[in-house]
């Protein structure tokens, strides 16, 4: 496609602003490691919330949604919509606990909650396992999306795309630290929203589509509009709805949707001014992530079924795309090639913003693990702030290089999504319970980590070759079920067969974080003077459920409006507003600092 000078000017301005933000934040970010990685723990909820949304507004996300919709219809999105339960649990139960912990990273938590060499090993291993290996996989999926966008819309080779996408990101991320990332995210979020909404509106007016009504009634689309899978087809109902809502949301670990919070979500909560801002940020994130953003992507995905009904149609339209990169997820980028001058520049800038926002967050988050939880803790405990910032900037560059190399080997985002879910299967419940059950120890997490990884390797690599366990394609969800079951049994046994943490470590954690006392009773019975208030856990779980209904109602209200059912949309809207009213009325009862 032809990109005009107007489009290139828009893209150029976007790059320039992003670079200037990094330069602006560089002086303050370089003053200390805490400034570089936590921005002085003084960030407001609105900036942190927008940053969380911008980070998950990755260029691979619309590709993933397109892949899902083309294969399984709108209802296929429950595979990630179900994580709203995790998000709301983090909002009302865990956000304030993370802020109270006052750790620098969520991995530092291990030596606050556990003790001795096992805790130190867990922190060091996870710093490299998550900060490098896992983090690189996530960034590689984002880079893969950039490769497909660059190939379809700009005719660039994978290497050319990676060079353009990564150089600017690395520069402003390494200069500005977390504050630079937050400020750039804020700017990039609005560019991304304008681009995705503008693209959806224009595509609906294409001659091949005609209008929203024509789209919804087209034979290629009409059977893919249901919000829920067919309840009479168990081969669809189990993997698309039952598994995500009954098991996946609490049992699996996935970056950005960790049960109990974690990763870059925890980093944002830890950098908040106080507990109220930590909760406000995560609440805004979950509302925006699940209710505000999906429908423009879904509209474009459904439209692609008319213009490119088969993958072969995509291949014929874009013969320069390598065969191993050709898939349903390519359809999103393919649809954007129809956009006119000016709008294509904004949309390209929005997609670049999505790539850069996610990469910058993961680069800063990953380097925080390398610096704080490995280098400072185990290599050079007396390192100066200047040295730590330098190591952070070097690790930022190296992480980007590793992600770019891996991106060249991946084929689609859904493949990576499923692999990551399988690796984290069965570990999620630990991250929920470790705050509230005194008996969990470092060995619980160590065994869970290794068992889940071994099970994932077995089902993703060994079993397909040897056929030890027969798993039909339509029942591939059984892999996740096996993973959750085996891993959960393994870590429960490890917990019960190993000694609990020492009382002084548990009491120190309890005093600092002040979790609800329900699961600490056996410990507190030995130290009755340590007992604090029972806590507000029942109310918090109630608000989690209310918040979940509120956001789902808002999500479906938008969809019902698009489908032309205004009465149904009004009902869903009232339900959503009622949920918001209940949350506001109970806000002051949460006793936040």
From TrEMBL:
Compartment(s) where it occurs, according to its Swiss-Prot or TrEMBL record: Membrane
UniProt keyword annotations, A-Z: Membrane, Transmembrane, Transmembrane helix
Topological type in the membrane: Multi-pass membrane protein
Entries under Gene3D superfamilies matching the protein: Sodium/glucose cotransporter
Transmembrane segments: 6-25, 45-66, 78-95, 127-147, 153-174, 186-204, 234-251, 294-311, 331-355, 390-410, 416-437, 446-468, 480-498, 541-560, 566-584
Family classification: Belongs to the sodium:solute symporter (SSF) (TC 2.A.21) family.
Name of the protein in its database record: Na+:solute symporter
Organism: Mariniradius sediminis
């Amino acid at each position: 496609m032809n990109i005009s000078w107007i489009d290139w000017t828009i893209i150029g301005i976007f790059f320039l602003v992003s670079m200037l933000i990094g330069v602006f934040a560089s002086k303050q970010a370089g003053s200390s490691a805490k400034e570089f990685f936590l921005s002085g723990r003084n960030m407001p909820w609105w900036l942190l919330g927008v940053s969380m949304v911008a980070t998950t507004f990755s260029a691979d996300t619309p590709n993933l949604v397109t892949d899902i919709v083309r294969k399984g219809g709108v209802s296929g999105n429950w595979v990630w919509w179900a994580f709203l339960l995790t998000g709301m649990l983090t909002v009302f139960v865990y956000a304030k606990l993370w802020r109270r912990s006052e750790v620098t990273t969520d991995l530092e938590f291990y030596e606050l909650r556990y003790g001795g060499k096992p805790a130190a090993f867990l922190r060091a291993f996870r710093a490299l396992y998550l900060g490098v290996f896992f983090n690189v996989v996530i960034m590689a999926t984002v880079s893969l999306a950039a490769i497909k966008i660059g190939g379809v819309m700009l005719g660039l080779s994978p290497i050319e795309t990676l060079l353009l996408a990564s150089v600017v990101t690395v520069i402003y991320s390494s200069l500005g630290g977390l504050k630079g990332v937050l400020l750039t995210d804020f700017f990039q979020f609005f560019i991304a929203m304008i681009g995705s909404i503008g693209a959806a509106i224009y595509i609906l007016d294409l001659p091949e589509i005609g209008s929203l009504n024509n789209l919804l009634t087209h034979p290629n689309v009409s059977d893919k509009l249901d919000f829920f899978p067919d309840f009479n087809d168990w081969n669809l109902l189990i993997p698309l709805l039952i598994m995500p809502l009954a098991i996946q949301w609490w049992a699996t670990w996935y970056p950005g949707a960790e049960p109990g919070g974690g990763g870059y979500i925890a980093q944002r909560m830890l950098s908040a001014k106080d507990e109220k801002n930590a909760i406000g940020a995560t609440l805004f994130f979950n509302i925006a992530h699940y209710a505000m953003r999906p429908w423009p992507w879904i509209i474009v995905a459904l439209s692609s079924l008319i213009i490119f009904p088969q993958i072969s149609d995509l291949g014929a339209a874009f013969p320069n795309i390598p065969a191993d990169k050709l898939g349903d997820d390519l359809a999103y980028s393919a649809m954007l090639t129809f956009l006119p001058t000016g709008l294509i520049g904004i949309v390209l800038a929005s997609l670049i913003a999505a790539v850069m926002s996610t990469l910058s967050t993961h680069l800063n988050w990953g380097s925080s693990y390398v610096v704080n939880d490995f280098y400072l803790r185990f290599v050079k405990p007396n390192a100066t702030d200047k040295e730590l910032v330098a190591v952070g900037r070097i690790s930022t560059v190296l992480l980007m290089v590793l992600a770019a190399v891996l991106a060249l080997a991946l084929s689609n985002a859904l493949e990576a999504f499923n692999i990551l879910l399988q690796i984290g299967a069965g570990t999620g419940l630990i991250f929920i319970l470790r705050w509230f059950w005194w008996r969990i120890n470092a060995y619980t997490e160590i065994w869970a980590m290794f068992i889940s990884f071994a099970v994932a390797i077995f089902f993703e690599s060994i079993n397909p070759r040897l056929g030890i366990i027969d798993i039909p394609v339509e029942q591939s969800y059984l892999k996740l079920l096996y993973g959750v079951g085996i891993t959960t049994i393994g870590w429960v046994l490890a917990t019960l067969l190993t000694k609990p943490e020492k009382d002084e470590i548990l009491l120190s954690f309890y005093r600092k974080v002040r979790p609800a006392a329900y699961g600490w009773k056996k410990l507190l019975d030995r130290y009755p003077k340590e007992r604090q208030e029972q806590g507000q856990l029942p109310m918090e779980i109630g608000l989690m459920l209310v918040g979940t209904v509120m956001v789902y109602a808002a999500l479906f209200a938008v969809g019902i409006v698009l489908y032309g059912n205004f009465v149904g949309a009004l009902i869903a809207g009232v339900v959503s507003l009622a949920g918001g009213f209940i949350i506001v009325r109970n806000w002051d009862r949460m006793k936040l600092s």
